[in-house]
Design goal:
alpha+beta; Protein Transport Mog1p, Chain A; seven-stranded antiparallel β-sheet; 7 strands; about 20% strand; DUF3558 domain-containing protein; signal; DUF3558
């Protein structure tokens, strides 16, 4: 049961990394004389990250991005474990009923822009611009919309070329089951707080 939840909760990290890795850059066409090239995507553009965060130490040790006190407050976590992700390790926290929270970093894969680019593909089950996370832009996204079943995924841009995902899969016993995205936001906000403090 726990392994299944951990795999499901990591979908956001995997989707973001896999999409970024699978894009073909192609050869840019020469611009018309004096006219700049038009952007490839006609959809909304991801906001720039005005104050990039130094997240290098968390990329390989994501379980330190939440302090034990934060993990207890957010999820009433009773255990956590680190596992391999597609681009970097991920950390999974669980409560006593196996509701799960996963946070993972996706370095050098286009940051939040990759999530925005997914809006034009049929593989994305949902996309919604997220709230400001302690000064950093975010977006809700997934290739499967399970928000009415305790699932939610949020990506937060920490540099223009890097994001982290905060993903939850909640059991019906969770008080946040009906609004899983609020828990993903709470976890992401705590993570940014930790990163800023250098904890």
């Amino acid at each position: 049961m726990t392994k299944t939840i951990a795999v499901a909760a990591a979908t956001g990290v995997l989707l973001l990394a896999a999409t970024a890795c699978s894009s073909n850059p192609g050869t840019p066409a020469p611009a018309a004389s004096g006219t700049p090239s038009a952007p490839v995507s006609s959809g909304p553009q991801a906001p720039r990250v005005s104050n990039p965060l130094a997240v290098g130490k968390y990329e390989q040790d994501p379980c330190t991005v939440l302090t034990p006190a934060q993990a207890t407050e957010i999820l009433n976590s009773v255990r956590h474990s680190q596992s391999d992700g597609n681009a970097a390790p991920i950390c999974n926290w669980f409560d006593a009923d196996d509701s799960g929270l996963t946070i993972g970093f996706v370095p050098h894969q286009g940051g939040l822009s990759t999530v925005y680019e997914n809006t034009a593909t049929s593989s994305v089950g949902y996309f919604k611009v997220g709230p400001d996370i302690a000064g950093y832009p975010s977006a809700f996204f997934s290739n499967l919309d399970d928000r009415n079943r305790g699932g939610c995924q949020l990506a937060v841009g920490v540099t223009d070329d890097e994001a982290f995902t905060s993903s939850v899969i909640l059991q019906k016993s969770s008080p946040s089951y009906a609004d899983p995205c609020s828990l993903a936001v709470k976890a992401a906000t705590a993570a940014v707080t930790t990163i800023k403090a250098g904890a």
